[in-house]
Structure of NAD kinase:
Amino acid sequence: MTTTSPRLAFLASPAEEAQRLLKELADHHGAHAPQDADVLVALGGDGFMLQTLHRHASLGKPVYGLKLGTIGFLMNHQRDGSSAVPGHGLIERIHAAEPAVLRPLEMVAQTESGATVGSLAYNEVSLLRQTRQAAHLQIDLNGQTRLDELICDGVLVATPAGSTAYNFSAHGPILPLGANVIALTPIAAFRPRRWRGAVLKADTEVRFRVSDPYKRPVSATADSHEVRDVVEVMIRESQDRTVTLLFDPEHNLEERMLAEQFNSG
């Protein structure tokens, strides 16, 4: 980012409000292509933020999000009267923003047809049963079998940033940023009935093997990228990919995660 006025690339969800703001901001600040910008500005909700990361993270540009969707944990909130209205503080907010460096998960899935599919996940990788039949899964950690058979609706592996999303809804733990851990969380586990998952070191290689995939088919989803009819899924934290999100100092990502844990609502 430059010390003066950063070059901004504005990206918006298809929602009418986001598209309107996109035009206003581009008219006021000028619009640059993502590869030519200093900062990417994403207008939408968390879903659109994840799309932006998947499309543009390889550019290595920091991303500042403005919440225009229904869920915006990864976004900055608009401020009454001075949020992102042209000429009302967007550049100042970007200059004052605090960075949060996120490291995605890498998923490699093997399918019944013999295909190998790779994908990244900034929130989580989830395995889910495809039919009414419960999934039967074996769980290996770093090459050692830790659970011979998990009978469940599914299971997921979440990053710290994603631990407040699907993982939290499945009663998994919220993980502090920078703790170098990931969450392994079952979804409606039937057996072992009392197993609640595990918190693992971030460099742990997690491998799921699907038992009887023809009778009990399972899909794997990395954020929103779904692979159906998997027989084996390997998940590990990426060693060479990171993305930087920018947050307003008074409501940075670490503060949001703390607030979520003490929210009694």
